UniProtKB/TrEMBL annotation:
InterPro entries: Phage_gp6-like_head-tail. Pfam families: Phage_connect_1. This is Phage gp6-like head-tail connector protein. It comes from the Bacteria.
Length: 139
């Protein structure tokens, strides 16, 4: 089980980048956009299996086995009942397609906050094409 210990303090995209690419020319959403960026980044991280911002986690392996960590890179060998593993993800530069995927999600979340819109972006072929090359398949 993966549990967040220390959240990311810096996101891979800025409020200014989001506003520029989504053509938002007012300040009414400036307080809300950072939280939406975080939610979008976390969704892309879950979809791809890659950490996109530095954060600390606790991973509790289940049972005795070789267990891949849920966020690349890392693998651990564990035994049942062993203490949780603490680790920090320190990713390198985030690929531009994943930054654009985050921005697309932010736009969708702002436009359809209840997810009741006619389309669901994470099922959008454009979004899927952006994240697919970076999607990690666990063994």
């Amino acid at each position: 089980m993966l549990r967040l210990i220390a959240a990311a303090t810096q996101e891979p995209v800025t409020v200014e980048q989001v506003k520029r690419l989504l053509h938002i020319d007012h300040d009414a959403l400036d307080e809300d956009i950072p939280g939406v960026i975080t939610a979008a980044r976390e969704l892309v991280e879950r979809r791809t299996g890659f950490a996109l911002a530095e954060a600390s986690y606790e991973w509790t392996p289940v049972g005795g086995r070789v267990s891949p960590l849920p966020i690349w890179p890392g693998e651990t060998t564990s035994e049942a009942g062993v203490l949780p593993i603490l680790f920090t993800s320190k990713p390198g530069p985030v690929p531009e397609p994943l930054k654009l995927a985050i921005i697309m999600l932010v736009g969708d979340m702002i436009e359809n906050p209840e997810a009741a819109g006619e389309k669901v972006l994470h099922q959008n072929p454009g979004f899927a094409r952006l994240v697919f090359p970076y999607t990690r398949v666990l063994p």
